[in-house]
Sequence to fold (388 residues):
Amino acid sequence: MKLFEQLARSRRWDPEERQILEQVQRVADEVIAPNAADIDRTGEFPWENVQALNELGLNMLFVPEAYGGLGMSYALYIEVVSIISEACASTGIIYATTFHGMKPLIQYGSDAQRARLLPRIAGGGLGALAITEPSAGSDATGMKTRFTPDGDDIIVDGSKIFISNGDVADLYLLFGKWSTIDDPRRAISVLIFEQGTPGFEVVSKERKMGHNGSSTCGLSFSGCRVPRANLLGEPGDGLAILLASLNKSRPSVAAHARGIARAAFKDMVAYGNERVQSGRSILGFQGNQFTLADLASELLMLERWIDYVAQLVDDGVDDMGLEASIAKLRASDLAMAMASECVQFHGGYGYCQDYRAERLMRDAKITQIWEGTNQIHRQLIGRSFLNK
Fold:
């Protein structure tokens, strides 16, 4: 694994960052990874894992110091996502989803909104991002959730589906359409919705192929009264906020997929050296060496691209949507390819739950679908080369 050790050394973390990463790795090894198989089997929400992350104060990484956080780099945050996701994909996406939902509050919220709401997240509260509806998936303009102004309040009516952390979040970044704006794009607005608001209901919880410990829920909003003070920006600012926020969340889900890919690759190397066939380890066979060489090359280049995108975020570059799409596309495709080859490497054992190979394959698949399907990302990337 010399290639990966050299790459890891090239990330010049400062002493505080290195200490954080060492603590995250310790919790991943001692708490999260040992729980992963049971969480997948039972489908129970991993509160023990969340508590262990909160004891490290990991939500504080991305919350500014002024609001109870540490304000660390984006590069550090996504490395933490990968470490957690390598140990347990469900726990990794639970942690990352809080960032996805609350980063726009950090970036676009007023000082008063941040001061009132962010300490809840810094203290360990969970966040969620509520966009998708039955008629609005990749095309957000099709959403029907309605925001109706009523004095100092906003009345929310509508529904959402496929919402990660939907039944456990303290705060939701909720998108809907402003009732007095007719244009479907200009009408999209966004607010912070608080758990416990009357009229809010979790109406379903999906049974899934993978990520069984992560809640994926259908939500209903019936006459929910939200303070207008929770509106981010102005009515109609929602689409611009959504598109800008994807530049941060898509590399984050790429980091999550990278964690799955790392796990599958390490399992392949370990099993390939351990398993003996015809008097030698299966890694002694040239065909298997070729497979690992190709996958290692892909993973190393992905690692470098994610590093590059993280640096763009930390440098404050706004126009990086295509770079974020490439990170999400390549990471999720590699996670699926790596996990599939991991199952094949393990032979019949790979199809059984004695090894985590089959779980990694099930967990990997959704990474090609959420945060924009990979077909959408290929379209975004490909059409960027058209002459305008």
User: Anything to note?
Assistant: The mean pLDDT is 96. The longest strand covers residues 153-164. Strands lie at 127-130, 146-150, 153-164, 171-178, 188-194, 200-205, 216-227, 276-277, 280-281.
